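Is this the right way to post C-alpha cells for a design question? Let me know if I should format differently. Anyway, here goes:
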C-alpha cells in the first residue's frame, strides 16, 4: 500500500544485499516511519516478540525470512547434518516468540520441510530464500482475493442503502501492516473504496497497545478512506443506534470448526453485533486456520503480555516518543492479549477461496485438501 504516495510492503529482502531483511518497524507508527534492517535470526526473533512486526500474516512471513537468515548464518556447518541442527534450533527460537498466531508455526514448518529437500547447505539456503519469498507472495495474493470476495458483501449493503455510505467497524489492526500488503479485514474496505463506493470505518482504539488508533487509522488515512477512531467500549452503543452496517475483523488463529481467536475485545463486539443483528465477518487467509484444533476456548493458547503495557501508554509529544503512567504504580494489572469468539457468533469467514460459514463442514468444503 502507499505511504506518502510511495508503494511499500511491510517486509522485503534488501535489494542490494541478500543477507539483510528490511521491515517497517511498527512500534513508532504513526509518528515515525522507520525501516529496520535485520541481519540474524536472533534479531528477527526480537522483532517478532517485541512487536516491531505484528499481526498474524506478517508474523508468519517474518518467521519465514527468519528461517532464511538462520540458513545463511550457518557457514561453520557446511555439512547437511550440522546445518539441520542449527536450523532446528532457530525454528524453536522463533516458535517461542508469540503463542497465539498459528501463522508462525505454519511458516516455520513449511521452511523446515522445504530445506529438507536440499542435499547441501548451499542448496538449502537457496530453497529457504525461495520459500520465504513464496510465503510473502502468497500472503499478498490471498489478501487481494479476500478483498475481492469481501467486496461483494459491501456492495450488497451499498445497494440496500441506495447510495448512503456503508459504515463498517473493525478492531485492532488486520490491515496491510498485519500482512505483507492489502490486509485481511481491510482488503474488502480498500477494494470498496477504490471502486468508488462510499464507505466509512469505525476504528476501535484497541487498548492496551492501540493498534487500532495508531496503525489502522494511519493506514486508512494514507489510503484516503474516511474513518473515525472510537474508544473500544463505544462499539455497542453505535450498533444500537444503527451506525454500523457490517463488522469485519481479522484473526490470529481460527480452528477448523470456526472458533476465532482475535485481539482482546473482539468477543464483546461479536456479542453486541449478535444482539443488534449486525453481520459479523472474520477475514483470514487459510494460513490462519488451525487444521488440528477443534475447540478454540480449550485449545488456543492465549498470549499474556507484560502488565506494564496496561499501566502505561506510549504516544508522541512534540515530535518525540513518550510514555506516561495510567495506573497507580502499586496496582496489579493483567494483559490478556486475545479472546475467543465462538463460531455461533460469526456470520461468515472471508477467505482467499471465497466466503464460508464458521463451521467445519463449510470450511472443509472450501479447503477439501485438509479434510483428511
Ligand atoms: O498482537 P498483535 O498486534 O499481533 O495482534 C494481531 C492483531 O492485530 C489482531 O488480532 C488482528 O485482528 C489479527 S492479525 C491479522
Amino acid at each position: 500500500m502507499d505511504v506518502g504516495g510511495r508503494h511499500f510492503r511491510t517486509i522485503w529482502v534488501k535489494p542490494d544485499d541478500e543477507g539483510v531483511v528490511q521491515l517497517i518497524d511498527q512500534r513508532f507508527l504513526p509518528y515515525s516511519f522507520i525501516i529496520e534492517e535485520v541481519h540474524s535470526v536472533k534479531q528477527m526473533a526480537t522483532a517478532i516478540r517485541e512487536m516491531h512486526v505484528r499481526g498474524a500474516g506478517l508474523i508468519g512471513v517474518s518467521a519465514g525470512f527468519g528461517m532464511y537468515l538462520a540458513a545463511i548464518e550457518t557457514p561453520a556447518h557446511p555439512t547437511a547434518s550440522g546445518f539441520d541442527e542449527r536450523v532446528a534450533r532457530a525454528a524453536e527460537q522463533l516458535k517461542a516468540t508469540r503463542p497465539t498466531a498459528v501463522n508462525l508455526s505454519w511458516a516455520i514448518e513449511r521452511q523446515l520441510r522445504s530445506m529438507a529437500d536440499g542435499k547441501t547447505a548451499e542448496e538449502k539456503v537457496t530453497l529457504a530464500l525461495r520459500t520465504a519469498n513464496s510465503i510473502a507472495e502468497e500472503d499478498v495474493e490471498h489478501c487481494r482475493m479476500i478483498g475481492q470476495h469481501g467486496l461483494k458483501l459491501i456492495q450488497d449493503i451499498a445497494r440496500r442503502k441506495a447510495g448512503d455510505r456503508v459504515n463498517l467497524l473493525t478492531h485492532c489492526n488486520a490491515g496491510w501492516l498485519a500482512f505483507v500488503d492489502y490486509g485481511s479485514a481491510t482488503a474488502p474496505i480498500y477494494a470498496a473504496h477504490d471502486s468508488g463506493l462510499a464507505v466509512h470505518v469505525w476504528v476501535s482504539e484497541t487498548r492496551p497497545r492501540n493498534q487500532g488508533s495508531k496503525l489502522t487509522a494511519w493506514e486508512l488515512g494514507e489510503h484516503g478512506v474516511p474513518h473515525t477512531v472510537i474508544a473500544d467500549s463505544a462499539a455497542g452503543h453505535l450498533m444500537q443506534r444503527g451506525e454500523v452496517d457490517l463488522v469485519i475483523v481479522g484473526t490470529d488463529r481460527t480452528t477448523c470448526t470456526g472458533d476465532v481467536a482475535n485481539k482482546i475485545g473482539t468477543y464483546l463486539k461479536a456479542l453486541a453485533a449478535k444482539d443488534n443483528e449486525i453481520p459479523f465477518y472474520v477475514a483470514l487467509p487459510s494460513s490462519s486456520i488451525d487444521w488440528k484444533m477443534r475447540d478454540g476456548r480449550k485449545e488456543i493458547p492465549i498470549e499474556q503480555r507484560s502488565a506494564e503495557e496496561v499501566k502505561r501508554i506510549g504516544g508522541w509529544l512534540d515530535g518525540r516518543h513518550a510514555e506516561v503512567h495510567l495506573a497507580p504504580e502499586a496496582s496489579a494489572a493483567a494483559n490478556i492479549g486475545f479472546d475467543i469468539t465462538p463460531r455461533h457468533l460469526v456470520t461468515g469467514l472471508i477467505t482467499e477461496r471465497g466466503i464460508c460459514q464458521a463451521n467445519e463442514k463449510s470450511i472443509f468444503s472450501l479447503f477439501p485438501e485438509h479434510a483428511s
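Format looks fine. Someone answered above. Worth noting: The first helix runs from residue 41 to 49. The two ends are 37 Å apart (CA to CA).
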